[in-house]
Write a structure and sequence with these properties.
It is a single chain. The chain is α/β, with parallel strands linked by helices and 285 residues long. It has one domain (6-281): Rossmann fold (3-Layer(aba) Sandwich), CATH 3.40.50. 42% of the residues lie in helices and 9% in strands. The chain has 13 helices and six strands. It has helices at residues 20-29, 47-58, 64-68, 71-74, 81-88, 123-134, 146-155, 163-171, 184-189, 191-202, 208-217, 220-225, 260-274, and strands spanning 6-8, 11-13, 37-41, 95-98, 115-120, 179-183. The strands form two sheets. Strands 4-3-5-6 form a four-stranded parallel β-sheet. Strands 1-2 form a two-stranded antiparallel sheet. Helix 2 (47-58) runs antiparallel to helix 11 (208-217). The protein starts with 5 loop residues before the first strand and ends in an 11-residue tail after the last helix. 34% of the residues are buried. It binds adenosine-3'-5'-diphosphate. The site of adenosine-3'-5'-diphosphate has 20 residues, from helix 2, helix 6 and helix 12.
Length: 285
């Protein structure tokens, strides 16, 4: 490792716009309000897809907002300096993004009725997506090979720590009525039903043409061409020229990268760490 990450309580965070002081401040003193809606994910689970979809639901399919404002201002990350500073002074209902594990999330949340959408994804696909993203990022410890990143991922030495801990932590609140779990896989298979589920959860209704516009504008192809959403404005600043957010956008890409031995190791670790949770929580093969 090259020492670019920021650490708090044994967890690494990207070394850009993060500090242990802000992370502590967010947990202790950031006030979540009943009317806030929180989009929670482990990195590379499809966070930006969920943000895009939510913003389109809020704008009733009108793409003006997503075409003129980047996702980190539409639904700022509570845990980085930039997002924290936008959110703390913002009046009215807020859309808030976060990758924080439950133990670092603002304590105020646990006394509110704020709604949370927790988007999960097959950790094997998260691993592949993360490898291709982080290896070019300038602000984290970069893996030198897929093999090295496999070890880091299993150990939780990756941004935001262990996927297993993150998922177990948040899954423990899954029975609360203000908590909706979605999966990347179901969203891919049937985006319309997922959008309907979100609308129902939020008490929103879309007319048929509004729904069609949401579906069109949150599609992989349209997002890839939207310069506000494809991270192209971060190039040269924080991301390498050839780094892309919208890489493949498919389910099961891990099969193209895992060796047989890695697949077996991962399966065994998954069983050990998650085997006691209901299998229907993890809708992938
Ligand atoms: P891949 O690298 O597997 O392609 P995050 O936003 O949490 O960083 O997640 C990034 C992943 O979500 C990338 O996965 C990206 O392609 C995928 N993604 C983003 N928008 C998508 C969309 N509209 N449809 C499908 N996948 C999308």
């Amino acid at each position: 490792m090259t020492g670019k990450n920021v650490w708090l309580e044994g967890l690494p965070f990207p070394g850009l716009d993060f500090s242990a002081e802000i992370l502590r401040e967010v947990r202790e003193n950031f006030t979540i309000k009943d009317e806030d809606v929180i989009l929670l994910t482990y990195p590379k689970s499809g966070t930006n897809w969920l943000i895009e979809t939510m913003c389109l639901i809020y704008s009733k399919g009108d793409p003006k907002w997503i075409q003129s404002v980047p996702p980190w201002e539409r639904s700022p990350w509570v845990e980085n300096n930039y997002g924290y500073n936008i959110l703390k002074d913002k009046e009215g209902p807020r859309l808030i993004s976060s990758h924080l594990p439950i133990q670092l999330f603002p304590k105020s949340f646990f006394k509110t009725k704020a709604k949370v959408i927790y988007l999960i994804r097959n950790p094997r696909d998260i691993f592949v997506s993360g490898y291709f993203f982080w290896r070019l990022a300038t602000f984290v410890d970069r893996p030198e090979s897929l093999e090295q990143y496999f070890e880091w991922f299993i150990q939780g030495n990756v941004p935001y720590g262990s996927w297993f801990d993150h998922t177990r932590g948040w899954m423990s609140t899954r029975d609360k009525e203000n908590f909706l779990i979605l999966s990347y896989e179901e969203m891919k298979q049937d985006t319309r039903s997922t959008v309907e589920k979100i609308c129902q959860f939020l008490g929103k209704k879309l007319e048929p043409e509004e729904m069609n516009s949401v579906l069109k504008n949150c599609s992989f192809q349209v997002m890839r061409e939207n310069n506000m959403s494809n991270f192209s404005i971060l190039k040269h600043k924080f991301l390498a020229e050839n780094e892309i957010l919208l890489r493949k956008g498919i389910v099961g890409d891990w099969k193209n990268y895992f060796t047989v031995a890695q697949a077996e190791t991962f399966h065994k670790i998954f069983q050990e760490r998650m085997g006691d949770l209901p299998p229907e929580l993890f809708p992938w093969e």
